[in-house]
Design goal:
CATH topology: Rossmann fold
Largest sheet: 3 strands, parallel
Distance between the termini: 18 Å
Strand content: 15-25%
Order of helices and strands: EHEHEH
Helix content: 25-40%
CATH class: Alpha Beta
CATH superfamily: HAD superfamily/HAD-like
Strand order of the largest sheet: 1-2-3
Number of helices: 3
Amino acid sequence: MDPTDVWVIGDTPLDVSCARAIGANAVAVATGWHPVEELAGCQPDLIFDDLSDHTRLLAVWG
């Protein structure tokens, strides 16, 4: 499997680091303790306040 086909979805900077460590894409969702601004500093491929509007995420996979 090509790691660039993998998407790690999480709500912490460690989730973004995990994705980067394996060469995967990172989606950060600010539904936990870490605000959007903090998660954005980790440079995920996509970032969301929450996944209530998941169309942008699905468009990438489409």
